[in-house]
């Protein structure tokens, strides 16, 4: 459709097509942002990270977190910014002793291995223990000056619990699944505390300026269907129910993303969220048929496509756009975070292709 035919902008944004797509409103072309768009594939990010001294020092500096949040927007015509932070800020604020080890990722000094430890977990005040995140949100929102919307985020309770119980990254999920099967009451207690903490954390981000919220359920896909609904989706539902959905006269869209969760798209749509993320293992056209027009879809290009020649990237962009089809309600994204060794020039090819090739899908 022509830009002159677009509805009035209620958000005070220079570019609001990302939010409009999530609300299934008419837009001129498909919006795009990229999970981990501020990250190690950018040389300017690596320079700022070195200046910060450590990853968590980078997260804890509102000015540096703002700097790296804006870096991809200076390079690419992206339609949204996402807060630079980490999903493990909440467990860190709960006192588990988070460090990041080169080559090993996050490590907790005090993993949760008993009912007593779970009972003793405090629920952090986002304006006290996580004040540095809130300061970053406010600083970034001010610096954006209405350029594009700001996405706030958190990990899902199940995903946070996996790190907290395992003590770090894992391939077997032995401790968290052992807890789930052998002591489900304690697992539910932990997940309930985390759902309260995540709800408080995301609402604080909204009050500080986040205009969209996303919940990353990175490890929900390792669960069986019944356990996913009981131990992951039920707690994301609780969070959705408790979130601020309108602030300062504007709708605050909410996106749920379960990696490997395409089979549960209908269940995720039933939560009342505004959008669901889809990874590259799912067929977007099938999911759109299943959920209809009641929720937006985000995704779902395989991140490894960005290692391919430009012509292949454009071909894959065209394929993803075709699988979603005509009309609004699609936010283009990778099916997971961008890989650290991707050439930034490939991202420019991707972003430009999405905007150019998607325009016919939005014409009346």
Description:
With 364 residues, the chain is of the alpha/beta class. The protein has one domain (3-362): TIM Barrel (Alpha-Beta Barrel), CATH 3.20.20. The protein has helices at residues 17-22, 43-52, 55-60, 62-75, 89-93, 115-119, 131-144, 157-166, 174-182, 184-208, 225-242, 265-269, 284-291, 310-324, 344-358, and strands spanning 81-82, 98-101, 105-108, 150-155, 212-217, 246-247, 250-251, 254-258, 275-277, 296-301, 330-334. Strands 1-4-5-8-9-10-11 form a 7-stranded parallel β-sheet. A two-stranded antiparallel sheet has the order 2-3. Strands 6-7 form a two-stranded antiparallel ribbon. Strand 6 (246-247) and strand 7 (250-251) form a beta hairpin. Helix 2 (43-52) packs antiparallel against helix 4, helix 8 (157-166) crosses helix 9 (174-182) and helix 10 runs parallel beside helix 11. The N and C termini lie close together (6 Å). The model is unreliable at 1-7 (pLDDT under 50).
């Amino acid at each position: 459709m022509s830009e002159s035919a677009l509805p009035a902008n209620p958000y005070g944004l220079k570019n609001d097509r990302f939010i409009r797509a999530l609300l299934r409103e008419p837009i001129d072309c498909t919006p795009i942002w990229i999970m981990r768009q501020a990250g190690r594939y950018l040389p300017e990010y690596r320079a700022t990270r070195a200046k910060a001294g450590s990853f968590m020092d980078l997260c804890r500096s509102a000015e540096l977190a703002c700097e790296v949040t804006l870096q991809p927007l200076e390079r690419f015509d992206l339609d949204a910014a996402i807060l630079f932070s980490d999903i493990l800020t909440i467990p860190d604020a709960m006192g588990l002793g988070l460090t990041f080890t080169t080559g090993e990722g996050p490590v907790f000094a005090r993993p949760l291995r008993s009912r007593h430890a779970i009972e003793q977990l405090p629920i952090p005040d986002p304006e006290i223990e996580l004040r540095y995140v809130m300061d970053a949100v406010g600083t970034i929102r001010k610096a954006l000056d209405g350029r594009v919307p700001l996405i706030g985020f958190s990990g899902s309770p199940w995903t946070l619990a996996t790190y907290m119980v395992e003590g770090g990254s894992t391939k077997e999920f032995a401790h968290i699944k052992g807890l789930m099967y052998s002591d489900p009451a304690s697992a539910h207690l932990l997940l309930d505390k985390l759902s309260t903490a995540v709800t408080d954390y995301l609402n604080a981000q909204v009050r500080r300026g986040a205009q969209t919220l996303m919940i990353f359920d990175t490890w929900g896909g390792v669960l069986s269907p019944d356990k996913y609904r009981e131990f992951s989706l039920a707690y994301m539902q609780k969070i959705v129910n408790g979130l601020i959905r309108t602030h300062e006269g504007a709708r605050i869209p909410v996106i749920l993303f379960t990696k490997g969760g395409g089979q549960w798209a209908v269940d995720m749509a039933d939560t009342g969220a505004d959008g669901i993320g889809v990874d590259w293992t799912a067929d977007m056209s099938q999911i759109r048929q299943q959920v209809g027009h009641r929720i937006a879809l985000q995704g779902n290009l395989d991140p490894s496509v960005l290692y391919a020649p430009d012509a292949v990237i454009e071909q894959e962009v065209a394929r993803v756009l075709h699988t979603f089809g005509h009309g609004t309600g699609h936010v283009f994204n990778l099916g997971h975070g961008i890989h650290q060794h991707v050439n930034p020039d490939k991202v420019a090819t991707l972003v430009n292709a999405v905007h150019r090739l998607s325009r016919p899908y939005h014409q009346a």
